[in-house]
Amino acid sequence: MELRHLRYFVAVAEELHFGKAADRLGISQPPLSQQILSLEREIGARLFERSNRRVELTSAGKNFLKEAAEVLERVDAAAVRAERIHRGQVGEVRVGFFGSAPFVEGFQKLVFDFRAEHPDVDLLLEEMPTYQQVDAILDGRLDLGFVRPLQPKPESIQSVEISRERLMVVMRKDHPLAATQGDLSVGDLAGEPMVLYASSIGSGLHQKIVDLCRDSGFAPNVAQAANATPTMMGLVAAGMGVSILPESLKRLSLDGLKFVPLREPKAETAVWLAKRWDDRSFLSRNLFQQASRLKAKASPQGAGAEPADGTGKKGRVRKPR
Predict the structure, then answer these.
(1) Which residues have CB under 8 Å from 228's CB, separation 6+?
(2) Structural domain of residue 101, as residue ranges?
(3) DSSP string spanning 62-127?
(4) Residue 303 pLDDT > 60, yes or no?
(5) Is residue 140 located within the same domain as residue 173?
(6) Among 63, 69, 200, 292, which is 20 to 30 Å from 129 by CA?
(7) Which has the closest alpha carbon to 60: 70, 47, 69, 49?
(8) Residue 315, pLDDT score
(9) Are 280 and 136 found together in one domain?
(10) H-helix or E-strand spanning residue 298
């Protein structure tokens, strides 16, 4: 039994006239009559009572009509849904983000615009550190991720920069360095107790700060490690030390804290949107293209994005030590 047999049967059952049903189906009447007879033989029951004047459904035919109509309705609905998924109108996208990403304007705009343009798509957001996101993207557990710059970046990861911002020293307002006029240098923090992200969580910002300190001739004096940005700020407010955080986090600032920019050109960080090179799903490509357009508006050169047709080998990224 094929779907066309069900469609033929339903048409005849609704029209109760073979000629009208054939016109509706766009076929001639003899083949339609043959297909109905074939269906009745396969089922083992008469579905219609036929005479020269009328066609009527048998009891078996009436019951079969209800079941056949339901099957065709479900098949048609499944076909429509499949087409909408193919067009990116429905479905889901799994996107990772590091804890402070929602404070970045580029993140906010991309998420807001994507949800507005795809109201029937489930945008599933999951918070996790940068390097855990990369593993999840490579494993297929995430489609995309908002990450900090990756060092090194696996060849199989494609990324576009959506935001760049300065790094700033965060300290209590009564800290001696808070009285400094203008910017601070990373070297000014030599010997200062520092509150940093724990290296074990795989935050890209941790390694960035360590590298800045080493470039200035010292190793950071880590007095306390934390897993979350609000925790770090609270510890700084409690006098456990100073910290270095992106400028966007000034929005979270607690009373009694001061943000002072670092003057070194390298004292900046970025937010990337990353995905696998070989991920060709419509929704993933659509969100990535939105990020590329966002970057292009901010910088005509569109720096930070790879060509859309690149390829690469799948690899793991090593967490910073």
Answers:
(1) 99
(2) 91-163+270-298
(3) HHHHHHHHHHHHHHHHHHHHHHHHHTTSSEEEEEEE-TTGGGSHHHHHHHHHHHHH-TTEEEEEEE
(4) no
(5) no
(6) 292
(7) 47
(8) 44
(9) yes
(10) helix 282-298
Q: Is the pLDDT of residue 68 over 50?
A: yes
Burial 188-214 (b: 16+ CB within 10 A, else e): bbeebbbbbbbeebbbbbbbbbbebbe
What DSSP designation does 254 have?
A: P
Maximum mean pLDDT: which of 84-88, 172-176, 254-258: 172-176
Does 321 fall in a domain?
no
Tens-place pLDDT, residues 222-267 = 999 998 889 999 999 999 999 999 999 998 878 899 999 999 999 9
C-alpha span between 211 and 90 (Å, rounded): 44
Domain count of the fold of the chain: 3
What's the mean per-residue pLDDT of the chain?
87
- Give the predicted TM-score (pTM) of the model: 0.67
Please report the pLDDT score of residue 320 as a whole number: 39
Instruction: Indicate if 259 and 139 belong to the same structural domain.
Output: no
Q: Whole-angstrom Cα distance, residue 178 to residue 11?
A: 82
- Collapse the DSSP code of 202 into the 3-class scheme (helix H, G, I; strand E, B; otherwise coil) and give the result: coil
Tokens of 197: 């992200």
Tallying the residues shown for the chain, one arrives at 321
